[in-house]
Amino acid sequence: MHVQRKTISANVGITGIGLHSGIYTKVELLPARAGSGITFVRSDLDGLRIAALQASTTALDHATTVGKDDVSVGTVEHLLAALAACGITDLDILIDGPEVPIVDGSALPCMHLIAAAGVKQLGVTVPVLRISQPIELVDGDKSIRIVPANRLHIKYRIDFDHSAIGREAFHFDFHQDNFLRKIAPARTFGFMRDVEKLRAAGLARGGSVENCIVLDDDGVVNGPLRFRDEFVRHKILDLIGDLALLGRPIVGEITANRAGHAMHSRFVEKILATTAMTEDAATVGAPGRTLESFA
Ligand SMILES: [Zn+2]
């Protein structure tokens, strides 16, 4: 199973504050040639290039960071999720600072940005990653598992000890329109009780009621929610962004329980390690078969 490699048709840009660093950055999306992959380019540091791949991940505290040497780009997951949903495989992401702007906390602004740029097929295909056997990670009451399937389907369950969240579950069929309507608008969220601790650790410095759902002990401070179950939908958004670090589209049925960035990342590593061992003609094969509707 293969899909078309895609980039964008025109340069587009966005500016804003980073959720964790509190630093304002300018991001520009530039078309890239087929096969180059998705790359962050630090325009403030002589164009240092950091591949948007699992091998580049450096930190996973409350967001996903990619880096090279001492240089990094943080909170990449919402932008990468939007790119994955639009089927973008090749793109240069110029950024003049250490963190992707959080904008409104969701992936909707990124979806609008990609729509404004236009999506262009590159006339080359990329093999879809199909696992041949179940892959699972379990850590106490947290788990994540993928079983073979012909499309990407995600079942996510969360259980927070908070009256506004509690138990939520969502089943999502990965498809661009579905993503735009059901997942992209779901915003990141944070708890007032954690703010001091996070800021002391250099996190959440750009967080505000403008860019995330803020919860205090009584409930949501800056309602209304965009969805009754916005929290679990955002976890699916994060997972799609973290899966993008595989470097190519994946199909399978994923079941996640109470996971998060750190577990998503270990899961991506396990998928890569497992497929590296088993990858053969059966996995990469069937040349010429394209699945146009994948994204
Ligand atoms: Zn997120």
Structural notes for this entry:
- The protein has helices spanning 77-85, 108-117, 176-183, 192-200, 230-243, 261-278, 281-284, and strands spanning 2-8, 12-17, 24-31, 38-42, 48-51, 57-59, 65-68, 71-73, 91-95, 119-127, 129-130, 135-139, 142-147, 152-160, 166-173, 189-191, 213-215, 250-257.
- It has 295 residues and is an alpha+beta fold.
- The strands form 5 sheets. Strands 11, 12, 13, 14, 15 and 18 form a 6-stranded mixed β-sheet that branches. The protein has a 5-stranded mixed β-sheet with strand order 2-3-9-4-5, with helices on one face.
- Helix 1 (77-85) crosses helix 2.
- The longest helix is centred in the C-terminal third of the chain and has 18 residues, at 261-278.
- The radius of gyration is 18 Å and the shape is globular.
- 41% of the residues are buried.
- Mean pLDDT is 93; it is low at 281-295.
- Bound molecules: zinc ion.
**Heterogens:** zinc ion
Beginning-to-end CA distance, first to last residue: 13 Å
Instruction: Tell me what portion of residues adopts beta-strand conformation.
Output: 25-35%
Q: Roughly how much helix do the residues carry, as a percent range?
A: 10-25%
- Secondary-structure element sequence? EEEEEEEEHEHEEEEEEHEHEHEHH
Q: What labels describe this entry?
A:
single chain; 295 residues; alpha+beta; six-stranded mixed sheet; five-stranded mixed sheet; 7 helices; 33% strand; globular; disordered C terminus; binds zinc ion
